[in-house]
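Incident log, structure service

09:12 report received: a user says their structure output differs between two submissions of the same chain.
09:20 pulled the input from the user's history:
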Amino acid sequence: MTGSWRDVLGRTNELAQQYLEQAPRRAVAQPAPMEQLLQRLGGRLPEDPEDPVTVVESLARAADPGLVVTNAGRYFGFVEGGVLPVALAADWLATTWDQNAAFYALSPAAAAVEEVCRGWLCELLGLPEHVSAGFTTGAQMANLIGLAAARHHLLAEAGWDLEADGLFGAPRITVVVGRERHATVDRALRVLGIGRSSLVEVATDAQGRMRPDRLAAALADAAGAGPLIVCAQVGNVNTGACDPMREVCRLAHERNAWVHVDGAFGLWAAAAPSLRQLVDGVQDADSWAADGHKWLNVAYDCGIAFCAHPRAHRAAMSLSAAYLDDAGERNGADWTPESSRRARAFPVWAALRGLGRAGVVELIEASCAHARRFAELLSADPRVAVLNEVVLNQVLVRVAADDERTRRVAAVVQAEGATWLGTTVRDGVTALRISISDHATGPAEVAAAAEQVLRAARRG
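09:34 re-ran on a clean worker, output below:
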């Protein structure tokens, strides 16, 4: 390595270590108006090259006020995993190696690691061993991939060649969804050319779980209407609740429907013996979406699309050209829409090796235990009501049965900076939404955050 490489990487390593060492003590989020950040980071494009060390130092200094500390155990806002040290280190190596994971010829190592991780993840999550996997940006794209495979499979069964003839004139696909599905499902369907008028919404119970009786009625009404997809959910983004997967899969498959599961964080419950019953039957689905940057605690971005029908998965995603001939080896681009992408599986491999099965289980079960403790501490105050059954890592809380007061509590907590949580609106009611999925969160962080919420609530 040249002196230039050593200087800039050495200084970057120092800056990274400083950030990680300071993260437990700095404000989780700081007031950072966009205008201020643009002034710090902007200005005229330089005409001449700058010293690389100076550039890196300038970036670290200018970006600092706009950084949100999501990996020090005190962030409870969106469902954000922290970063395991071993996964961070592997992510640095992946960037250093600069491997394009799209084609075997560009990186045999990346292709091999993807295949190893596919097998390990299927074993960990209890999915059938033949399931295919594509490593992509996140659950948004993983949902799109799973639904694209469903679209290809169902239209092929109906005698329609999607790749040759496109969607114009194709049999209409009906998609049955739960009322509390995540917004990424609708966006994925929209990108795939399946609009809102093709959706049939199924009522959910008090926790947001799809009701089997209503699903059965919706499927009966759709009988004879053409190809069917049922989009299920494990891990409601507000309550953490999971659709009753065994019943969902049985009812859907009786109608020859494809079952896709949005399991961005909830699918990881399948790895933990104490939580597995929440997702019982999920292995019977046809495709699944999950995030690595949530409960596996690898760095952004990392999502995984799984499919029980590899032929449909590959047909929906693959591309071919005269210069692409890898003699049947795994090409990452056959399983995702990206023809150029970073080697996301290296950090996944490191996280799984670093944690082992026992470590993954401990991380997931600890997060859920922390969520239950958070709810217990908050509900001890009569001003605070916990609105959901705390079955996974999500806690919904309302203050003084008042929307505005609940929002004010969130604003006070955010401004103080020692922790961060946000608000949501569910069934017309504003609530604090607490999410726990960072390996760095422990009992002390939970106790301190709960006390901060209670202090804000007591102020009125």
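09:41 both user submissions now match this output. Likely a transient worker issue. Closing.
09:42 reviewer note: The radius of gyration is 23 Å. The first strand starts at residue 132 and ends at 136.
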